[in-house]
Amino acid sequence: MKNYSNLNSHPSILLILSISCALIVPLLVTGPFLPDLLLSSLSIYFLYFSIRYKIFSIYQNFYLKIFIIFWLVCILSSLMSDAIFFSLKSSFFYIRIGIFALLISYLIDQHKKIIDYFYFAFLITFSSLIIDGTFQYFNGYNLIGQEILANGARVSSFFGDELILGSYMVRLLPLCIALFFVREKKHKWEFYFFPLFLILSSVLIFISGGRTSFFFLILSSMFLIFFLSRYKLIRISILIVSLFFVSLLIIKSPKLQERFIYSPIKDMGFNNSQKYIFTPSHDSLIKTAWNMFLDKPIIGHGPKLFRKKCMEQKYATGIFPCATHPHNFYIQFLAEIGIVGFCFLAGVFIYLCYLMLRHLLAYLTHKKQYLSDYHICLLAGILITVWPISTNGNFFNNHLMMIYGLQIGFFYKKK
Question: What whole-number distance in Å separates Cα of residue 227 and Cα of residue 55?
């Protein structure tokens, strides 16, 4: 029987798996179906492969163990909910994200070329979005005829009706930067192209119209400037140039002024005595979710059940109490998975703060880095996910879950 525990002797399998994983990046632009189908297929194959050839050592991973405990908590919450099968469809299959992350980690150890495959997948995909999104901003429609949305204030590029261009780019940009750092052989043109690439990506995130995405861009940029050991001056220059172009766009565009200046002021209630959490609609959703948490504080109402329970009169609060999710990860965890699930998300944030503090102390006391620049970039992406004071999408959304899987898989890498 062949021994597949070391796939270095089977380069064709490595090549197929590595390229297939990297294809997740462009496929995410097409919608959730194709990337989720590919991710699920890869996860099932890797699970079969590891069991068939008894490669159990790959499961001896601290992060995977925490992930499995969290997965079991989600399943328990679903089983104790009022809509077991509806909730269980989300929680039970969530395990595929952890297996996919483990597959990426395993391929990094077995086939270094996967770094290049993902890196160029990011460059090609993001560059295509930059060209198409910029064209759409100035012409009102993109290269395939899709019109600009939301009264001209939201560029969506190839995402069409899904206004997630900014979210997609800002969450994956730190991973792209991490791959730039970790690549062993860089061409000269990359040192000229990559800064321009980052500037244009930042501007596109802004013109996508996502206020939360733009906030995350500033947050992650400041994080990188503070903690990176290399290219610090270049990163500062990139941020300054990006903000310069953003300022010009705001000055010349009344629609962007309304989107980023006047609407937030109005939404926060500065023109009257009523104050809101983020906006009136977000305030309503968050208070409704809080009422749900108070009713079932330990294990919650079940993953993805906010959309059903928010319609009940005993929970609904404010002018817009119901949606598919309460638009904040922490309050969503409290409502759907209770204080037990909330502890996992809060724990990740605390662990991130611990890593940063340890990194800072190592530098101040010994002039050494506790974390590599590669890991600093990945933590910038994770910081966006676990940042508590912001609006978010649905944590159990397939699109977001696949992005988490990519971040976690590359974070497993020890280098």
Answer: 37
